[in-house]
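Usage

Read records sequentially. Each one opens with the input sequence:
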Amino acid sequence: MKDERGNDGNYRRFLKQLQEVTLKILIALGGMVFFLLTGCTGSPADPAELLFEFSFEESLEGWHTRGIDLELGQDTIQWSITQSSDRATDRSTSLKFYLNNLNDADKIWVEKKFSVRPGTRYRVSISYDFASRDNGTMNLFTVIPGVLPRPPRTREELAPTFQGSTGNGSDSDSEYIWTRKEYGVIVESGETGELSVVIGVWGTWETPRTYYLDHLRITFDEH
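and closes with the structure output:
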């Protein structure tokens, strides 16, 4: 069949171009609908499980450093949390925690907010490699891993995350030993759909100490 000008070749090319344009428009509209249904709400693409991993190779990777109870008279106790190439288990760098604990109260940690479904109950699992020289069972510091509805700013708010010790499992003095720390908690997200993960140490013995953290893995499972 020919068009009015008898040029069926041009007519076929016109139909083909029209089909291609129509297909592109449909794809674009489909993308817009998907964005409106998922992106604007801030909901995760996979509501059942979320997995995050950090090795701190390039930076702190969005984690923020915090500390409380650092006062000693008129001074502030020295502490730091930095990226370090001293030692690592996952590639070449880790997080280095230094705390010159002189008051048995210092608490330092890293924290990061994670977006989840609002008003949803989650089982959160935290695991990481932890390097320590602390041996035996005496004079150990306390480790701080946990998940909270909002970033903690007081000892009372941070208290639910006090669990476990910095002991490396050795009975005698040793160099740094890496151990795998694993913790789980059930928590419910609020209206904002955010949960704050915190990981750190609480100095419970008057001495300066340094620790390392690497290969951090966090999973959120709807519970």
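Summary fields computed downstream for this record:
- The domain at 49-222 is CATH 2.60.120.260 (Jelly Rolls).
- The first helix runs from residue 8 to 39.
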